[in-house]
């Protein structure tokens, strides 16, 4: 009968399941390897050029088609042409062949091309190790729990393919290879966990994962409409855990960039916010009431301003060390970093919800907070002048500021302003954006209300500024943590009042109090699918929301206990083990000792595995040693009958008792169960003692 070929299977008329079950071993293993490579490459499709993803998929499909139809692989010239095309496209796309992005692009293409010359096992090994390296590069873009689980699955598949390659004979099943790969991986887990817990924690040399890129929209600049881009971003911005009960959502304001310079369209931060300038920026805020101590884990927001809870007691210029990063407090009470935060940051902080800051009397430092761009928004300035003349003219300086704030907030409540995430664009037909918002359309959200409110306050002669950050949090705790989402980004105002200093005023609360009082996130209208599910089955929608909360709680544990595992955590572990003042040498000693124990245990395991463990094999090994003492050239692969013949050839008739014992052992092992002699433990011991006694007699010289 001729052997089955892929071409004959493809044309046999069988279904695809039957075809797969009848495929030759090499074809089946090739399909499994191609599927594994596709799974490994899948997470990179968002990070490589479109042409790279398409060409990788086409090459894998091409290789699969060749294996299915049993056709020969392409020649060397075709591969050289593909390599040249890949290098040219990479250079055209990235302008270089060096660096992370071009390197991963080339790696993905080369691994796909290598499958087109899978002619020998060594070619498969190259693909395996390229695959392992490609799995590692997934963490350059994301370190989430989902990435970790997918990476584990890819490693398991690659290990299974490697096990198949180490079984060149027969038709081993994929299930057998996967089980062997799982056992091998499990044996390596103790070493992996040990290295994770004790290996020195150092910053990555390759840069920052792409999932670290912040999506908050917060920056040192704010434009009308900018914050609407994050309305649907439900990703987590930070997590907090308070020592006691958390405060109500309306009290949670996380201070981010302070924007004080307005050009008619954009709000920007004042220059000169370095640590030296901050030390001259004023005194510490006056705090009242108990301190709220909390732990905060900030996602990588790519901001040089850390949005911490308002307000800590520290004075401007105060330094704070967090995970090797030196922070300082700016003159406008925000916490600043010398570079954007591009990795998760966990720190301990405290805040007082009742506080006041800034000078109590008018000074030159406040003049910058009264400036307005000349020639812009004349109708808003006129409106402010009318308000001042009609309602504020006869008030004393101490009464003027609070009355002005109250009058403008009353106008916001009564003038039919509408809080919406889709206000449309402002300034398309006129440079007077505030006029259009304040007096005409009156549609907007927090940045519109905060920016326009500050303009009106300045028009009334009061220093004012815009503060951006986050407000509120999810109502439900997740694993003991309060969750603040990017959709809870917010903008509010601060107004300086005589004898009071800077006072927070949230004009959004006058228009949409539910946004502030409940700490709700910005809520865009639900999409068609979400709206349909919610309408048809509210219970299903609540269940999906519960699943999301559960997943986020699990992801929080991953971040807290794995991603945020730091040097301090290592030293705390050593302290719990008895080290009073742990350092790097203590870590090294403990790691070396434990690795030595694991290596010794592994060596003992290998030695134990090399020994025979069943009774028959142990008896054979003992008999083989006795035969070699009698100078009989017996080998382990030979049977008792052949040993008996070799014994007779070496010692003649004197070996008859030993020969008889060996033949009895053969019958005990291989005869039918009904007629076989007993070969239990006691019987084996008796036979071995008898064999040794006969052997000693045989070694004794015969009498002349």
TrEMBL record:
Keywords on record: Membrane, Transmembrane, Transmembrane helix
Classification via SUPFAM superfamilies: Cysteine proteinases
TM region(s), chain numbering: 48-65, 77-93, 123-141, 147-165, 186-206, 584-608
Occurrences of domain Transglutaminase-like (ranges): 438-509
PANTHER family linked to this entry: PROTEIN-GLUTAMINE GAMMA-GLUTAMYLTRANSFERASE
UniProt name for this protein: Transglutaminase superfamily protein
Organism: Roseateles asaccharophilus
């Amino acid at each position: 009968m001729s052997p089955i070929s892929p071409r004959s299977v493809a044309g046999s008329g069988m279904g695809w399941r039957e075809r797969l079950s009848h495929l030759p071993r090499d074809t089946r293993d090739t399909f499994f390897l191609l599927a594994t490579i596709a799974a490994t490459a899948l997470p990179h499709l968002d990070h490589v050029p479109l042409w790279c993803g398409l060409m990788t998929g086409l090459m894998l499909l091409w290789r699969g088609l060749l294996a299915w139809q049993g056709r020969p692989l392409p020649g060397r010239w075709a591969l050289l042409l593909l390599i040249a095309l890949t290098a040219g496209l990479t250079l055209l796309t990235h302008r270089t062949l060096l660096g992370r992005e071009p390197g991963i692009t080339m790696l993905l293409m080369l691994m796909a091309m290598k499958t087109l010359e899978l002619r020998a096992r060594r070619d498969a090994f190259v693909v395996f190790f390229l695959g392992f390296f490609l799995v590692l590069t997934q963490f350059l873009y994301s370190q989430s729990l989902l990435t970790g689980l997918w990476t584990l699955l890819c490693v398991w598949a690659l290990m299974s393919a490697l096990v198949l390659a180490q079984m060149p004979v027969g038709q081993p099943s994929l299930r057998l290879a996967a089980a062997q790969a799982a056992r091998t991986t499990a044996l390596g887990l103790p070493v992996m966990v040990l290295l994770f817990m004790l290996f020195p924690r150092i910053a990555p040399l390759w840069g920052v994962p792409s999932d670290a890129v912040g999506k908050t929209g917060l920056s040192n600049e704010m434009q009308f409409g900018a914050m609407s881009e994050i309305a649907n971003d439900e990703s987590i911005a930070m997590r907090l855990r308070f020592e006691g009960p958390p405060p109500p959502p309306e009290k949670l304001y996380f201070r981010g960039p302070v924007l004080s310079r307005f050009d008619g369209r954009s709000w920007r931060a004042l220059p000169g916010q370095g640590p030296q300038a901050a030390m001259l920026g004023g005194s510490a805020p006056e705090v009242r009431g108990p301190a709220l101590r909390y732990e905060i884990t900030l996602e990588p927001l790519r901001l040089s301003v850390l949005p911490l809870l308002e307000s800590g007691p520290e004075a401007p210029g105060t330094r704070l060390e967090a995970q090797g990063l030196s922070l300082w407090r700016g003159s406008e009470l925000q916490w600043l970093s010398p570079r954007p935060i591009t990795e998760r940051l966990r720190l301990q902080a405290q805040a007082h919800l009742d506080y006041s800051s800034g000078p109590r009397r008018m000074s030159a430092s406040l003049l910058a907070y009264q400036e307005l761009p000349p020639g812009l928004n004349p109708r808003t300035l006129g409106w402010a002048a009318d308000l001042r003349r009609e309602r504020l003219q006869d008030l004393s300086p101490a009464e003027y500021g609070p009355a002005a704030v109250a009058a403008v907030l009353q106008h916001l409540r009564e003038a039919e302003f509408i809080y919406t995430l889709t206000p449309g664009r402002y300034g398309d037909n006129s440079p007077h954006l505030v006029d259009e918002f304040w007096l005409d359309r009156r549609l907007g959200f927090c940045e519109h209300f905060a920016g326009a409110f500050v303009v009106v306050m300045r028009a009334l002669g009061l220093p004012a500024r815009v503060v951006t950050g986050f407000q509120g949090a999810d109502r439900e705790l997740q694993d003991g943590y309060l969750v603040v989402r990017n959709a809870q980004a917010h903008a509010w105002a601060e107004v300086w009042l005589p004898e009071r200093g800077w006072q927070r005023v949230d004009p959004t609360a006058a228009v949409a109090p539910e946004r502030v009082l409940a700490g709700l996130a910005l809520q865009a209208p639900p999409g068609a699918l979400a709206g349909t599910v919610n309408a048809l089955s509210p219970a299903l929608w609540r269940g999906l929301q519960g699943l999301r909360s559960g997943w986020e709680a699990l992801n929080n544990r991953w971040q807290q206990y794995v991603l945020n595992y730091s040097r301090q955590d290592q030293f705390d572990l050593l302290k719990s083990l008895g080290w009073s003042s742990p350092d790097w040498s203590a870590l090294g000693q403990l790691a070396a000792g434990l690795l030595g124990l694991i290596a010794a245990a592994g060596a003992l395991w290998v030695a134990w595995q090399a020994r025979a463990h069943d009774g028959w094999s142990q008896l054979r090994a003992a008999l083989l040693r006795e035969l070699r003492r009698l100078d009989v050239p017996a080998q382990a692969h030979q049977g008792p009958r052949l040993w008996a013949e070799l014994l007779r050839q070496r010692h003649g008739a004197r070996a008859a008792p030993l020969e008889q014992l060996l033949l009895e052992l053969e019958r005990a092992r291989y005869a039918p169960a009904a007629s076989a002699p007993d070969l239990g433990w006691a019987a084996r011991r008796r036979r071995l003692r008898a064999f040794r006694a006969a052997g000693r007699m045989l070694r004794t010289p015969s009498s002349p």
